[in-house]
Structures are given as C-alpha cells and as structure tokens.
Amino acid sequence: MTKAFITGINGQDGSYLAEHLLSLGYEVGGLVRRSSVAENQTYRINPIESKLKTYYGDLIDQNSLADAFRHFKPDLIFNLAAQSHVRLSFDMPGFTAQVNAVGALNVFTAAKENCEGARIYQASSSEMFGTSVDPDNYQRETTPMHPVSPYGCSKLYAYSIARNFRRAYGLHISNGILFNHESPRRGTNFVTAKVVKGALDIKYKKEKFLELGNLDSYRDWGHSYDYTKAMIKLLEYSEPLDIVISTGKAHSVKDLCKVVFSKLGMDYEEHIKINPKFLRPQELPYLQGDSTKAKQILGWEPEFTFETLVEDMIMHFEASYK
Ligand code: NAP
Ligand code: F7E
Questions:
Q1: This model's pTM is above 0.90
Q2: In angstroms, how far is CA 63 from the centroid of its own chain?
C-alpha cells in the first residue's frame, strides 16, 4: 500500500490527512475543485503542494473521478469531499444530496471500475444519528440512525451504499463515523472557529458583540489532527469496518463560549446575542460518542482535549491580530 488519493484534499481534514500520509512515506494524490479565485483551490495545501499530485475534478462529475483514478492508480482512496455545513444543507438540500450522496456513489463506482483491490474510506458523520441516543447518553456503532438534517440524510445514504458495495461486490470500504472535529483550519462559519474569531474581534476592539444561534446543543469536539490519524489506521486495518471516532466528552455551545471568552479575559454573557438567522429548522440537540471499538481494534486514542483544542485554535487565530 503506497499510493493514497484524497477527495476534498484542500479541506480541513484533507490537508491534515495529506500531511500525515506524506510523513508515513505514502505517495499522495488528490482532487481539487476549480475556483474562480485560483488561490482558493489549494489554500490549505499550499505548504505541501509540490509534494502532491493534484487533479481537477468534482464528485458530481464521475468522468473526472475515473480519469484521476486511472492515472494515479491509488491503493487507498479517502472520500472526504462534501458540502459539509449542516445549516447550509437546509438552504441547499438538492446540491447537498448530489455531492454527498450521489457523489459518494460516483467515487465507489469509479473505484470499482478502475482501481481493483483499492481500500476506500468514506467520511461518515455522527450527524447520521440525529435525535437517537442510547440510554447511557452515548452514540456508538449500534445506535439507530435517525438523521434530522438534509446533510445527515445525505451522509446516511453514502454510509448505506458503502456497506452495500462492500457486501455486494466485495469492495474494501470502511465508514469512519466521526464526531465533530475542529482545528485552526476549520471554516469560520462552524461554531468553534466562529466563537474563537468572534471573541478575538471583541478583544481587539473590531466588534462589540458576537451573534450566534442555539447555545443549548451539545457536541463531542475533537481535533482534526487526531481524527485524520484514525482514518489511516482504519484503512491500514485488514478488514473493512464501520467505526466511531470521538472523544467521549460532550460540551454545550454555551460551555464553548464560556471557555473561549474566559481564556481571553472576558465574560461571554456581556457579548453574545442570539440571532434567529443562525437557528436551524430542526436541531440535533446532543452528540457524545463512544469510541471503545476504535481504541480496542485500531489502538486509536486522541491526544488533544477540549481545552487544548480551544487553546490551539486561539493561538492560531490570535497571531493574525498582533
Ligand atoms: P471541509 O473543510 O468542508 O472540506 C470539504 C472538502 O470537500 C473541501 O476541500 C471542498 O473543496 C471539497 N468539496 C466540496 N464539494 C465538492 C465537490 N462537489 N467535488 C469535489 N470536492 C468537493 O470539511 P472537513 O471538515 O474537512 O470534513 C471532511 C469530510 O468529513 C466531509 O465529508 C465532512 O462531511 C465529513 N465530516 C466532517 C466532520 C467534522 O466535524 N469536520 C465530522 C464528520 C464528518 P474546496 O476546498 O474547494 O471548498
Ligand atoms: O454547529 C450550534 C449549531 O455548524 C455545532 C460538521 O463538521 O459536525 C459539524 O456539524 C452546533 C449546532 O457543526 C451557531 O446549531 C449555535 O448545534 O459547528 P457546527 P455541526 O452542525 O455539528 C458534524 C459531525 C459534521 O459531520 C458536519 O460536517 O453549534 N450553533 N450558533 C451554531 N453553529 C454555527 N455553525 N453557527 C452559529 O452561529
């Protein structure tokens, strides 16, 4: 196993994953989308771009996937590309389904026809659990899935068709069911990066308030650096698996605000305003993952805690204010 291909290589996870794979000696290729601002196409992979083989393409364009696979000949394929924003999936349900559901089917089909024996990772999500929580307040591999967003529904299709291709055609496809993970590379319209950046804007007098939506939902937040290592462990494992990756600790959005503002010497209650624009038509109230299986089978455990994740994000974002 020497060649790894990543769809969504310029995303938060794609960029960390590419770095890990290069450090392990893999030859790394990836799919980039054409943007009218050329700099945005490779924004997160600029420091390593010369070591990568990139291909223009889109998950909706199956020919572009087949061409890239035929040319690069991957042993491992990580399907990370997605419309990954849950609230925006309510504004663009059709597009979200095309990219996340049909797009994943396109990846599996192109791999089946062009990369015999390749191992495939599907970026599945805890959002697939929706409102379903086990009696002990955790979600795990056996928890029923009842998604509550167009994003969650699209990911459940991709998860299911991955399992179907595994059984029907013997493909080695694994689902990593990842809980929320963040980093300095997180898009600033996700709540962790939005709160860190918003609090810094207030500290450095650019703004007085930060507008948010629901403060009462709970998320199990880990670090993308750790979670992308789990993706590699999963594909290096001999059998295809469906496996939860999480920290096992849930915090509310309110907790997040409290911690970030207090680390910057402020009281969040003086600066947060609720704007209904950031509420969702249906909210997912509680996510907390049990990753016992990942620990036992893959020997995976996260290095970052909630505290050190927040500190890493603050340190990164604050550098641009000084
Ligand atoms: P991200 O930062 O939004 O990255 C998504 C990547 O997909 C970007 O590089 C984007 O291209 C690319 N992309 C979007 N639409 C595409 C299309 N039609 N064709 C080709 N590429 C396309 O997301 P992330 O946080 O790295 O997440 C990686 C994957 O894990 C996603 O599938 C996400 O749904 C899933 N996931 C994420 C989390 C989490 O908490 N982060 C949890 C569970 C699952 P551009 O760079 O051009 O925008
Ligand atoms: O929201 C609340 C919001 O957008 C987290 C994606 O990576 O993880 C992510 O999806 C919580 C929600 O992430 C704002 O209502 C309050 O309860 O950061 P988020 P998400 O929706 O959990 C899953 C596992 C994925 O797979 C996805 O790809 O925070 N919240 N106020 C807000 N959220 C945002 N974005 N903006 C606010 O102003």
A1: yes
A2: 25
